[in-house]
Every structure is written in structure tokens, then in C-alpha cells.
Amino acid sequence: QVQLVESGGGLVQPGGSLRLSCAASGTRFSINAMGWYRQTPGKQRELVATITAGGVTNYTDSVKGRFTISRDNAKNTVYLQMNSLKPEDTAVYYCKAVQFRLPYGRTDYWGQGTQVTVSS
Fold this sequence. Notes:
Order of helices and strands: EEEEEEEEEEE
Oligomer: single chain
């Protein structure tokens, strides 16, 4: 069972930066894709950025050029560097890890979420 612990959220002014971290533990098997999602009240959770074990990244259009996702496979940790933050980036940010294991197939794990608030 994979546990995900997020950190790094908080309050920041528009134009500022934050770095989120998500550490995975509880497994001796490889974790495949990892990613960050966000959710605001009354809306569905949306993809922010994902990264494969090989380092291939994907971003939602609204964060391209401002956010950077990276991972340290040795530490089973994924990061999200968020620059030029805007009030519309305000949300609860969730970390997700995907693991493929035989014979179980794919399992998705979620962190508990960390609040990011962008406000002056």
C-alpha cells in the first residue's frame, strides 16, 4: 500500500512562487506515473501536471511555462515548482501515484491534499 505525503502549500501573493513536494512510501515496487491535480469547491478535480518514471512530462495549458514538474525516482518523490502564481491557481493540490503490479494491474493512490492560496 502506497502512502503519499504532500508538503509545501501555503499563502503566496500573485506573482510569487511555491514548491510542492510529495513523497511516496510503503512499497518496494516501482511507481510509474506521478502527478499533481487540483480542485476548487464545486468543481471537478483537474490535472495540473504528470511525469512518467522516464521523465516524460505533461501539463495543462493554463500552467505551461509557469509550473515545472520533476521527480526523484530514488526518493520516490515528485515536485511541483510553481512560479508566476495567479489567484486562479488557488486550490487544493493533490498528489497522485500510479503503480502497475502483476497480477493486480493498475492502482492509483492519492495524497491528502495541500492548500495553495494566491492572494494579496
